[in-house]
Amino acid sequence: MTFGKIITLCDTTSTDVRRRNMNLPSLENIGGSLNASGTRGLNLPKLRSVGGDFVVDGTGLEHLPPLLEHIGGNALISRADPTTLLNDLVAAKKSGVLKGDIFVDGGLYDASATRPFLKKW
After folding, report:
1. I need a surface site. Which of 3, 34, 81, 85 has the fewest CB within 10 A?
2. Contact present, 103 and 77 (Cβ < 8 Å)
3. Inter-residue contact 85 to 62 (CB < 8 Å)
């Protein structure tokens, strides 16, 4: 299954934080950005490509989808998300899978340094 443009998996007009179990087992490609901000239980087992930004802050996602080969934009996560996700994103940046930058709670994460750090604004 392929989507173009932007796919938003969260209700940005709602304050309901009880969204659970977003399971998209057949989704492989997104031509634009993925915004799953705050969506818990996110499952994208076949996702291979996101053409734009990868916004998964507040999802609790522990790892990048196992088949993911391309993120064309930035990755946005939260400090509350597992460090395993940040580690996966740093590895994706270093291997060229992630074309953009990593943002943690709006701050730019410098993955190019020997000891990565969160740049202060």
Report:
1. 3
2. yes
3. yes
pLDDT in tens, 24-77: 899 999 999 999 998 888 999 999 999 999 999 999 899 999 999 999 999 999
Counting every residue written for the chain, the total comes to 121
- DSSP secondary structure string for all residues of 20-68: ---B-TT--EESS-EE-TT-SS-B-TT--EESS-EE-TTS---S--TT-
Structure tokens at 29: 């490609």
Whether 37 contacts 63, CB under 8 Å:
no
HSE-CB of 94 using CA atoms within 13 angstroms: 13
- For residues 77 and 57, the answer to whether their CB atoms sit within 8 Å is yes
Q: Which residues make beta-bridge pairs with 110?
A: 117
This model's pTM is above 0.85: no
12, exposed or middle or buried, with CB in 10 Å at 0-12, 13-18, 19+? exposed
The token duo for 69 is: 């080969």
